[in-house]
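STRUCTURE:
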């Protein structure tokens, strides 16, 4: 169900274009570039990985981008989001320093940094992968090298590219998590990475939601109001069933503009907020299961 009123704001709410079973190792995957977002500096690859092997970008060997990129590896098990459920290998830098991790992690790849695609090994359960590229299209340039995925040297704790590998930290949400002015227990846990850690002009938060609640700046009488940002922003509402990725198990209402115009949906969606577009409040109703809520802000800090 998607209810979009015939208005100026309906164009900002879009169904996530998942395709199933391709490309490997994805069980489902969506590619979203300028034709989807309308932004000149944002393309997103998003999907649930369920097989071992390399997560191929545009090139399966070592390559570089002429734009910054950030990769995210998150658990799709909302009862245990601290366990990724797989081992990831990723080689970075001209020397191909090969890093390994088994917990939810984000990786910053500044433009011009040589790297191989990430490789999934020892898969125990499906997980979410997201790459955010500071570009309006997906593209890469191959790098000539004698290195391979398996021949690149294993990275130590103090190697040059270690700072680009950032384990995610999570906080348990409870009452007053969204501010001391009101008590709203949305359930689940929360994590965020901003430019102070990655060095990139990007802030991404990832949280699980299990309880009905309303989000938005509160007023003294307990109502919720719209707000704006001085940067472009995208919100993602995601389920965790790779066989039915459109299902999120919750009815969401999101308001747009100073008119506080409501739009209702219960499927996997992305909503786009250009700079200075008023939006909110946002209400979660009748959740049947936990869902994932992602905020992608095109700024080094969210404000």
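SEQUENCE:
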């Amino acid at each position: 169900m998607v209810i979009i009123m015939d208005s100026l704001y309906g164009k900002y709410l879009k169904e996530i274009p998942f395709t199933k079973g391709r490309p490997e190792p994805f069980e489902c995957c969506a590619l979203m570039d300028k034709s989807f977002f309308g932004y000149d500096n944002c393309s997103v690859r998003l999907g649930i990985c369920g097989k071992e092997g390399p997560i191929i970008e545009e090139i399966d060997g070592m390559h570089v981008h002429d734009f910054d990129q950030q990769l995210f590896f998150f658990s799709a098990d909302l009862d245990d989001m601290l366990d990724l459920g797989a081992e990831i290998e990723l080689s970075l830098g001209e020397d191909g320093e090969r890093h390994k991790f088994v917990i939810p992690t984000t990786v910053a790849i500044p433009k011009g940094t040589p790297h191989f695609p990430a490789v999934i090994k020892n898969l125990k359960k499906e997980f979410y992968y997201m790459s955010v590229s500071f570009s309006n299209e997906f593209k890469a340039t191959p790098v000539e090298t004698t290195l391979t995925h398996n021949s690149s040297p294993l990275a130590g704790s103090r190697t040059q590219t270690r700072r680009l590998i950032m384990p995610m930290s999570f906080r348990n949400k409870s009452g007053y998590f969204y501010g001391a002015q009101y008590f709203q227990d949305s359930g689940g846990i929360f994590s965020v990475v901003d430019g102070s850690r990655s060095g990139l002009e990007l802030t991404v938060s990832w949280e699980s939601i299990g309880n009905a609640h309303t989000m938005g700046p509160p007023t003294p009488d307990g109502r919720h109001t719209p707000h704006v940002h001085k940067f472009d922003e995208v919100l993602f509402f995601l389920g965790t069933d790779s066989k039915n990725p459109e299902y999120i198990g919750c009815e969401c209402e999101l308001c747009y503009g100073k008119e506080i115009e409501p739009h209702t949906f219960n499927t996997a969606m992305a909503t786009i907020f250009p700079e200075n577009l008023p939006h909110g409040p946002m209400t979660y109703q009748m959740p049947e299961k936990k869902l994932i809520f992602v905020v992608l802000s095109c700024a080094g800090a969210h404000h």
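REMARK: The longest helix spans residues 34-37.
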